[in-house]
Automatic annotation (TrEMBL):
<keyword id="KW-0238">DNA-binding</keyword>
<dbReference type="GO" id="GO:0003700">
    <property type="term" value="F:DNA-binding transcription factor activity"/>
</dbReference>
<comment type="similarity">
    <text>In the C-terminal section; belongs to the class-I pyridoxal-phosphate-dependent aminotransferase family.</text>
</comment>
<keyword id="KW-0663">Pyridoxal phosphate</keyword>
<protein>
    <submittedName>
        <fullName>PLP-dependent aminotransferase family protein</fullName>
    </submittedName>
</protein>
<dbReference type="InterPro" id="IPR015421">
    <property type="entry name" value="PyrdxlP-dep_Trfase_major"/>
</dbReference>
<keyword id="KW-0804">Transcription</keyword>
<dbReference type="Pfam" id="PF00155">
    <property type="entry name" value="Aminotran_1_2"/>
</dbReference>
<dbReference type="GO" id="GO:0003677">
    <property type="term" value="F:DNA binding"/>
</dbReference>
<keyword id="KW-0805">Transcription regulation</keyword>
<dbReference type="GO" id="GO:0030170">
    <property type="term" value="F:pyridoxal phosphate binding"/>
</dbReference>
<feature type="domain" description="HTH gntR-type">
    <location>
        <begin position="23"/>
        <end position="91"/>
    </location>
</feature>
<dbReference type="InterPro" id="IPR015424">
    <property type="entry name" value="PyrdxlP-dep_Trfase"/>
</dbReference>
<dbReference type="InterPro" id="IPR036390">
    <property type="entry name" value="WH_DNA-bd_sf"/>
</dbReference>
<dbReference type="InterPro" id="IPR051446">
    <property type="entry name" value="HTH_trans_reg/aminotransferase"/>
</dbReference>
<dbReference type="InterPro" id="IPR036388">
    <property type="entry name" value="WH-like_DNA-bd_sf"/>
</dbReference>
<dbReference type="GO" id="GO:0008483">
    <property type="term" value="F:transaminase activity"/>
</dbReference>
């Protein structure tokens, strides 16, 4: 077997040449290169090695390589360029069996939830923070980390959260993680190791977490959400010993947990060795009034608080944080080190600088009116074009939920919308115990005002078409 080195520097490819096979070498070479181009392993525009270099590498005469290249040029797999070099031509790729399917085209207007407006990421301020951090960080900080993360970020975030979210955070109790996804997974694993058995989640709620809980060995049960937040009487009956709530702005209903619900949750946790996990994922975006403080501030030893930069800055940053009760700090720190040895240090330090200098506050002040405008536009357009779709919940966050009238199914509405290039998403995946009423969850964070208006107009048209049929 002989190896071809591509002169693009992109890597190496193997071509099997069998000198005893009875097949001419130039044909074997052609076949090997052709197959790789057809499978997309040698991509369009890749610069091929010179015939001389390749002949040397493979121990062939140059004429054999020239003949193979000429044949592949004639077949349209390679292009001979002026200046004496040869490139891979753009050809249709034959997907081998088992290839990962690329998703079908995205809808032109997409109300998929979870998308903040990443085009507004504060690049200039972030760059200033990165520059400062790269210039000023002592080399000692580049060694392996404390499992909780850098003290700079834990300090900056605890100051910020105590100021704007009413938490009672101390840097020693904070842990930096790769988003809520990692923080919640590690927390559920540690709780399962400590003997917790059953996680209660709000019904409806984000569906990923139930799977994570089950993978950690916990049972997951749904507890209904009322207008005043999770039903604590039902929680009491559920037999759960840990509960996850989105108290500031329930996902997806948009309800806020009342003062009574919060107090009852804390009282529930205080009986026995129970724990509340508070997912404070989008509390910074409350448009009608100041957000209610986090529950963690009421009972730091009964509530594990989780925050994320995914809604406020960008999900691609993968930055999240936990404020942990004392008893969970050490096991969580160990779990984080076991998982990935800590989150990337420059990202943490840049974010710490960004928060400590007030850039995070400035960014949120700039984004709040933008999102508010999008939400108001969505709600107004629904009222004008589809008054049966009544938004639930408070004026906050990056999503709106509505129920559907009984004559419509989520699947029909979704299909009719998609025919018009519109992506809308149903409530069904979020129900836990049993399927609840049909509805839609609109994420508007990444859309323009014009797209929101057009999207609701398309939806009205889609629903109109279903009723004519
Ligand atoms: C309810 C809820 N919590 C938290 C998050 C944030 O997750 P992560 O920090 O892993 O991006 C999301 C993201 O969509 C969410 O919907």
């Amino acid at each position: 077997m002989s190896r071809i080195r591509t002169s693009s520097g992109a890597g190496e490819l193997l071509v099997e040449l069998r000198r005893d096979a009875g097949v001419p070498l130039h044909q074997q070479l052609e076949g090997g290169i052709r197959a790789r181009i057809r499978e997309g392993l040698l991509r369009a525009d890749t610069v091929m090695p010179s015939t001389r270099a390749l002949a040397d590498d493979l121990g062939l005469s140059r004429g054999v390589v020239v003949e193979a290249y000429q044949q592949l040029v004639a077949e349209g797999y390679l292009v001979s360029r002026g200046g004496g070099y040869t490139q891979v031509a753009p050809v249709e790729i034959v997907e081998p069996d088992g290839a990962v399917a690329t998703p079908a085209g995205e809808p032109r207007i997409d109300f998929r939830y979870s998308r903040p407006d990443v085009s507004q990421f504060p690049r200039a301020a972030w760059l200033r923070s990165i520059r400062r951090v790269l210039n000023e960080t002592p080399y000692q900080s580049l060694a392996y980390l404390d499992g909780r993360g850098t003290i700079e970020l834990r300090t900056a975030l605890s100051d910020y959260l105590n100021r704007v979210r009413g938490t009672a955070a101390r840097p020693e109790h904070m842990m930096i993680c790769n988003g809520f996804a990692q923080g919640s997974r590690l927390l559920l694993q540690v709780l399962a190791e400590q003997g917790y058995r059953c996680l209660a989640v709000e019904d409806p709620s984000d569906n990923d977490l139930r799977e994570v809980a089950r993978a950690a060995g916990l049972e997951a049960v749904g507890v209904p959400v009322l207008e005043s937040g999770i039903d604590v009487d039902a929680l009491e009956r559920s037999g759960a010993d840990v509960v996850l709530v989105t108290a500031a702005h329930q996902f997806p209903t948009g309800a806020v947990a009342s003062a009574e619900t919060r107090a009852a949750l804390v009282a529930w946790a205080a009986e026995g060795d129970r724990l509340v996990i508070e997912d404070d994922y989008d509390a910074e975006y409350r448009y009608d009034r100041e957000p209610i403080g986090a529950m963690q501030g009421l009972a730091p030893d009964r509530v594990a608080y989780a925050g994320t930069a995914s809604k406020t800055l960008a999900p691609g940053l993968r930055l999240g944080w936990l404020i942990l009760p004392t008893r969970l700090v050490e096991p969580m720190s160990r779990a984080k080190l076991m998982d990935d040895r800590g989150s990337p240090v420059f990202d943490q330090l840049a974010f710490a600088d960004f928060v400590a200098r007030g850039e995070f506050d400035r960014h949120l002040r700039r984004m709040r009116p933008r999102y508010r405008l999008l939400r108001d536009t969505l709600v107004d357009r629904l009222a004008a074009r589809l008054p049966e779709l009544v938004p639930a919940g408070i004026s906050a966050g990056l999503h709106v939920m509505t129920l559907l009238p009984p004559d419509l199914t989520e699947a029909d509405v979704q299909a009719a919308a998609l025919e018009r290039g519109l992506g809308v998403y149903g409530l069904t995946p979020y129900w836990v115990a049993s399927p609840g009423p049909a509805g839609l969850v609109f994420g508007y964070g990444g859309l323009t005002q014009k797209a929101v208006v057009e999207g609701i107009d398309l939806l009205a048209d889609a629903i109109g078409s279903l009723r004519i049929r």
